[in-house]
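Session log. Operator J.P. requested a structure for one protein chain; no other inputs attached. Running the standard single-chain path with token output.
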Amino acid sequence: MLKEKAGVIAGKIWETLNGCDGKTQKQIKKATKLVDKDLFLGLGWLLREDKIETSEVEGELFVKLK
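Structure written below.
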């Protein structure tokens, strides 16, 4: 059940990032209305699948699609 949930959340995050140059953690959270736990679950899924790149910009997590 958690695996399915992670996939759905990853899809929401991917859709949010698609067509842009990336977003901060806060921007993704606001756009997807996810709580931190679910946000990081989805980001972990996308990282494992090698779909996103992460970096730190001004002390904040920045995420973009590969």
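Operator note: The chain has one domain: 2-65.
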